[in-house]
Cell wall synthesis protein Wag31 (Nocardia jiangsuensis), 198 residues
Amino acid sequence: MLAGRAPAPPRMTPDEVGRAHFDRPPLGQRGYHADRVDEFLESVAATLAGAGALTADDVRRVTFPVPRFGGRGYRTDQVDEYLDRIRLELESRQNGGHPAPEQRAHSNGGGAILTPDDVHRVRFTGAVLDRRGYDEEEVDAFLDLVATTLAHTGPGTLTAADVREVRFTGARLGTRGYSREEVDAFLDLVITALEQRT
């Protein structure tokens, strides 16, 4: 993305997938069938370990049944969010890129979930051939503002509302641009980081 910046290593590991935990849904909701989700995550872990063949498209298309009446599986929003991270990881590996930084766990009041260095290191893959991505120069310029905001506070810095309102134009004709899904997912992480600061 930004010239001269070293790429970040992949962030998701088979062990992390094996330790994934999801809450039970609220009363009155059934969620996703826990056993089916666990089975799929085993396939994901095997793929990340080099012993499986799942693709990002497989993750995009996967569906899970609901538990039997009276049962409660996993919260659908948490599973869907985790599947988005898995899909980005597999897309990055398939395209030789690197995923956006993951949110860090905050045990004992740990550090920020996103740092200026994380923003500098992030790489986005190119958009699929039949869809124009976001203009790369616009995204890069905006991420420079994000990095500056995370490094400083005060007048002129971005807010979570600013990030929610940003709109990038499509890539110029003849260029692919950045994957819209990856950029949008990263902006969600930026919003969370800025909200945490305030």
Notes: Residues 1-10, 102-110 have pLDDT under 50 and may be disordered. Residues 76-95 form the longest helix (20 residues). The CA atoms of residues 40 and 62 lie 9 Å apart.
